[in-house]
Structures are given as structure tokens and as C-alpha cells.
Specification:
There is one protein chain. The protein is built from three helices and eleven strands, in the order E-E-H-E-E-E-E-E-E-E-H-E-E-H. The chain is mainly beta. The protein has one domain: Sandwich (Substrate Binding Domain Of DNAk, Chain A, domain 1). The strands form two sheets. Strands 1-5-10-9-6-11 form a six-stranded mixed sheet, with no helix packed on it. It has a five-stranded antiparallel sheet with strand order 3-4-2-7-8. The longest helix has 11 residues. The model has no long low-confidence stretch (mean pLDDT 91).
């Protein structure tokens, strides 16, 4: 396992992205056809649209690359998986609106992406975290490993925030 990112990532409107070439997409396009899998929109090639509980400010965020499917860690309160394939040689974790980015160095091949969260409701209750305030309880983990494409899937959902996003992904309307 290789840790690609372990940092505070600033979110705006509760959004952060994995981007590989191509244009940005909107919320509705990102979740189209995912049939009830919210939190991580993968409907647009080369892009993941990641949602957080905190709407504005910094959250703890980790990205890992594995050789094989990692064991499911049930300590996470929210767990979803989606297919992902970079469409260019450069793949980055990016803050909203072109802010800071972290090079992920992923090859152009098929991956499975698992997005995990804890404390989404607490982050949403806080809503905004200023720079001088302590970290909120929400934190996020994004894991990649080589795998053939499979449909998006919810493994675990416990928070109101995740339930709302899964409901949105059932039939997003733009």
C-alpha cells in the first residue's frame, strides 16, 4: 500500500475532486446512472466528484493506492465503491475551483475506487470551519486498486448526510 495524500484538504460546497484530463462536470452529470450510490460520483470519464459533510473549510483526507482490493474497514461509517479510469497521464486530487492539488500518479488503467467517511453529520452541523479552528470530526479515505469495471455500490451508510446523497443519486435531475 502506498499513501498518495495525507493532508488537510479544503472543501467548498462540500466538494473535492479527482481529475484526469477532460472538462469539469457538474453534480448532476457526476452521479447520473449510479442508481442510489451517492458520495462519490463517477459517471464522467476520468473524474470523481467527492462529497463531504463539512461545507466550507479543511477536512482530513487520505488517498491510498493498493496492489489488490484492501479489506473492508467497518470502522468507517460510510463506504461506497465506484469504477474509475484515468483518461490522461496526470491524475490529481483537486480542491474546488482550481485550488490546491495533489498528484496521484495513477496509470491509465481500470481501478476500483473506495470512498470512506466518518463524522459526516458532525461536519455538516459545523458547516464552516475557519482556519484557526480545530479539526472537525469528519474525515475521509479514498482507496484505489487495479480492477475491472463493476457497477457502483454502497457497502455501508449510517449518516443522514450520506442517506441524502444516496437518495439524490437515485434520480439526479439537472
Amino acid at each position: 500500500m502506498k499513501v498518495l495524500v495525507s493532508d488537510e484538504v479544503h472543501v467548498d460546497s462540500g466538494q473535492v475532486f479527482v481529475k484526469s484530463g477532460g472538462d469539469d462536470c457538474d453534480l448532476y452529470d457526476a452521479f447520473a446512472g449510479q442508481e442510489g450510490v451517492g458520495l462519490c460520483g463517477a459517471a464522467m470519464g476520468g473524474m470523481l466528484f467527492l462529497l463531504t459533510g463539512l461545507r466550507f473549510g479543511g477536512v482530513r483526507f487520505t488517498v491510498e493506492l493498493h496492489d489488490n482490493r484492501p479489506a473492508l474497514d467497518e470502522t468507517w461509517e460510510e463506504i461506497v465503491e465506484v469504477p474509475f479510469r484515468p483518461v490522461s497521464e496526470e491524475t490529481e486530487l483537486r480542491q474546488w475551483n482550481g485550488g490546491a492539488s495533489w498528484d496521484l500518479g495513477l496509470e491509465q488503467r481500470d481501478y476500483r475506487a473506495r470512498y470512506c467517511a466518518v463524522g459526516m453529520d458532525a461536519g455538516n452541523s459545523k458547516n464552516v470551519r475557519e482556519e484557526d479552528e480545530p479539526q472537525t470530526d469528519d474525515q475521509y479515505l479514498l482507496q484505489f486498486w487495479p480492477a475491472p469495471p463493476e457497477p457502483a455500490r454502497v457497502f455501508k451508510q449510517t449518516s443522514r448526510q450520506a442517506a441524502n446523497w444516496h437518495a439524490f443519486a437515485t434520480s439526479p435531475v439537472g
